[in-house]
Amino acid sequence: MNSLESFVCDLAKNAGSITLEALHSSRNLHVHSKQTEKDIVTDCDRETEQFITSRIRQFYPQHAVFGEEYGKTG
After folding, report:
1. β-pairing, 40-42 with 65-67?
2. pTM of the predicted structure, to 2 decimals
3. What Cα–Cα distance (Å) separates residue 5 from each residue in 9, 12, 38, 66?
4. For residue 71, what are the β-bridge partners?
5. pLDDT the model gives residue 28
6. What's the confidence (pLDDT) of residue 11?
7. Count of alpha carbons within 13 Å of 19, Cβ hemisphere only?
8. DSSP string, 9-28
9. pLDDT at residue 25, rounded to an integer
10. In Å, what is the CA distance from 60 to each residue of 4, 9, 64, 74?
11. What is the distance between the terminal CA atoms of the chain, rounded to a whole angstrom?
12. What does the pLDDT look like over 15-57, one tens digit per residue?
């Protein structure tokens, strides 16, 4: 496995851990409407996206990231 593959696998596992922890503890599962009642986001969604974005920016600062909740960074 090359370094990028290893990075992505670790990133996915750690992001998944954030989501699972929130699910099992009911932490950060506050639901918010975005534009419509059917378009929702949880605090956990936002936390997970921030984690992923921060890790990518930390290890690959030259890369831009486009996320669902916060849009483009970098």
Report:
1. unpaired
2. 0.85
3. 6, 11, 35, 19
4. 67
5. 62
6. 97
7. 14
8. HHHHHHHHHHHHHHHHHTTT
9. 85
10. 10, 15, 9, 10
11. 27
12. 999 999 988 886 667 888 888 878 889 899 999 999 999 999 9
Both tokens of 11, joined, read 């990133």
What mean pLDDT do residues 1-5 have? Answer: 91
Q: Which two tokens stand for residue 42?
A: 């949880």
pLDDT at residue number 24: 86
Fill in the DSSP letter of residue 61.
Answer: T
Stretch (H or E) spanning 55: helix 43-59
**Closest listed residue to residue 44, CA positions, set 56, 67, 27:** 27
* Number of neighbours of residue 44 by Cβ within 10 angstroms: 19
Residue with tokens 């950060």: 28
Yes or no: say if 18 and 39 are a contact pair by the CB < 8 Å rule: no
